[in-house]
Give the backbone structure.
Amino acid sequence: MSDTAHKILEENVGNIVLIKTREGVALRGKLKSFDQHLNIVLDDTEEIRSDGTVRKLGLVVIRGDNVILISPITE
Amino acid sequence: MSDTAHKILEENVGNIVLIKTREGVALRGKLKSFDQHLNIVLDDTEEIRSDGTVRKLGLVVIRGDNVILISPITE
Amino acid sequence: MSDTAHKILEENVGNIVLIKTREGVALRGKLKSFDQHLNIVLDDTEEIRSDGTVRKLGLVVIRGDNVILISPITE
Amino acid sequence: MSDTAHKILEENVGNIVLIKTREGVALRGKLKSFDQHLNIVLDDTEEIRSDGTVRKLGLVVIRGDNVILISPITE
Amino acid sequence: MSDTAHKILEENVGNIVLIKTREGVALRGKLKSFDQHLNIVLDDTEEIRSDGTVRKLGLVVIRGDNVILISPITE
Amino acid sequence: MSDTAHKILEENVGNIVLIKTREGVALRGKLKSFDQHLNIVLDDTEEIRSDGTVRKLGLVVIRGDNVILISPITE
Amino acid sequence: MSDTAHKILEENVGNIVLIKTREGVALRGKLKSFDQHLNIVLDDTEEIRSDGTVRKLGLVVIRGDNVILISPITE
């Protein structure tokens, strides 16, 4: 992870992020922690299905290997 | 695995978790054990099919490589 | 593999297990051996197709890399 | 990464690039940073869906493992 | 590979085996050689297509990484 | 990479090559550079879609991991 | 690669081989070179599409990681 990537994630701990993983899973939740392999912990997570409906998941541990992207949500 | 991820899993040994793996497999069961590669053992496991029906699997050993996410179920 | 995972597999040598692999292959057979990479040998194996029909395969060597889960069948 | 690849990315920090990843995700954004594993940070990012519609994502951290290609957009 | 897996393959050199790989390829042929990565050489090989038709391939070298399972055919 | 592969790529720097990657991406462009992991830089690149239409991409950095094949185009 | 696999490939340099890779690509061409990772160079290569039609590719460098099988064609 570049310093910039690390800094962005660090600055967004506690903020809402969007995560896309392999198998087409999309998650939106509060970034609780991350490590250098992009293993992620989200809280208050919602899974966003391909049809746009959401499902509450709460606390989620995500394996970094399968992460495609992480994007802080700013509104 | 970050310390936070480890702590969450540790705190949820004995609790019900949802696991999603590659190939679109979704499992719900009691977290019995895990290691740093996210190899997981679940007990009283149910496989949740894409059509929402479930199938009892009981004890299940899951290969960490193929895990996408783990989420404690709290109701 | 956690000690728990190892113990479960060890206790189930000689018992019937269900294995799911990548490419959607599902196998049911008698666990003959395993190693720490989840390379598995099954005996009296049946492949369970997605339509529920089965096909006898007998002895099967399964590459651990492609294993998603292993579940002892207890009835 | 060859020296040429490194030089191209370095010269395009601050410019708009197109990125394609596994799972068919296409992103267009301003290249903020990259490392030797092709982990990328984009800013002002848009996801380009297969039907051509776009969706604003803003800041995005992309895991290099899943990157297929990066292309500076010059118009 | 466990000792059991190795022994099974060794005992079946010269016998007909079924091999399934990623991308849904199924092959049936005489096991000529294997190594610890499950790289395999088959002779008199037939590819079995999903519609059940077969196609003669003769000698085939198979990359172990992509192997899902190997099963001796005993009739 | 074998010496032959290396020599072919070296001899074709500046020439047009076809590249196929995972996710079914096909690219045609001028080979600018490559390294031993098959990380590739193309210039004047066109993406060739499955329906045969093309789209100009210009300069492209391709991650070697996801490359399936490289073929110099000689007409 | 086992000695047998290596010997077969070595004996077939200059002969026509069939190669199948991930993403369902099938190629037929003259084996020019290979290395221990199954990186392959083919000459006079044709891509065989799923509908049976062929397309001339000429010289092709194939990344070993994505190779499923190699089969000398003997007629």
